Amino acid sequence: MIRNALAFIKYYRSGKRRGGKQDRRTFERKLERLVVRHVSHVRERSAFYRDWWGSIPSDQWRSFPSIDKTVMMAHFDTLNTAGITKSQAFAVAEAAESSRDFQPAIGRVTVGLSSGTSGNRGLFLVDAQEQAGWAGAVLGKLLPGSLLSRCSIAFFLRANSNLYESVRSRRLSFQFYDLLEPLSDQIERIERQQPDVIAGPPSLLRRLAEAVRSGKLTVKPRQVISVAEVLDPLDREYIGQTFGQIVHQIYQCTEGFLGCTCPHGTLHLNEDLVYIEKEYVPGKDRTFVPIVTDFSRKTQPIVRYRLNDLLTESDRPCPCGSPFTAIERIEGRCDDIFIATNSGDSSSGEEFVTIYPDFVTRAIIGASPAIAQYRAIQTGLDQWTIELELPDDQRSMTEDRVRTAIAALCGRLRCRTPILAFSPYTHEAGVAKLRRVERRYKR
């Protein structure tokens, strides 16, 4: 228990500091030492990594072959250092999902199950000390006020976990809201709670904001935090205007607590917890795929794990002065990069052109202020479905403007303009994560 308390305090203080005011070069030298020490520990404890890295020295860790979710899940039994098998972990996690009793643990190790938007569900393991460290880091970085202040937190998620419950204390009241429950029940309950902090997917936060605007809900939180889904500019503006404040973000997945916003609302990578290498993508300035090494976790080590996300670095320093990398936005997943046919007037010689999610988003929401919500789905090569939520009397005109905007985008990218099918917006906040830009077409 003492070790857990010390871990909580250590990470809480580190979270509060956000790297301090040290220069980036000094900070990177410190990170290098932390990663090398962590890698040496993992090599001793994890049979998988020991074999995976072979004879490559720990101080040359950037030369290690990377892993991804497929590799991690295929070698789960020998990758983790707790001796827990994949079948054991899945059995515990799926039982919790079925019963909606979210206390899944094997001994002192908490078991979690990712939502699996790609159809490939992942597992994560954290021991009690790592759980205490996670709670300290989250509260240090995001809690309004100090630990001595009373704070009521409402957390909307698909599934609860011992990990999330670990933020509860005598002064912090934490209530979990199951996204499977009807929205009307959730509104009644949160109205009674009147929380200081509301955290949830932006699709759900938007529904709460709509309830506030309609007078069905009167909550006035001190902080609103977006989790689990990409925060689209359209949603950020709507939610922020409704609650009269910056919408903060947590960037977290099975692979770690990767980022969160500072008081200025800038999303920073949590480089006091993870080292992130940047694999820059062609044709998109400052945009990269992150390769994550989490040096704060030992039960399920994450070393050179290539994510499927697209992140765009900020082109200006954040006023907060933190040395942590500032992110302009999380664009989405690599799987959701649209593919278009080359129009024939490009000198690249490539048969296909890539269209990044951010390009699609900006074209649609820039077409008309009447668009309240949208989804863009690539259903075939050069075939897109555009779902729009907007007044019926503006539908025809707005659809024409979206066609024009997408045609202009394709003209700039020198690709064939897709055939567009329009339909009303259909997504309901709940179990399924909202993906504003989604590619269903597979080459």
UniProtKB/TrEMBL annotation:
<protein>
    <submittedName>
        <fullName>Putative adenylate-forming enzyme</fullName>
    </submittedName>
</protein>
<dbReference type="InterPro" id="IPR042099">
    <property type="entry name" value="ANL_N_sf"/>
</dbReference>
<dbReference type="InterPro" id="IPR012685">
    <property type="entry name" value="CHP02304_F390_synth-rel"/>
</dbReference>
<dbReference type="InterPro" id="IPR053158">
    <property type="entry name" value="CapK_Type1_Caps_Biosynth"/>
</dbReference>
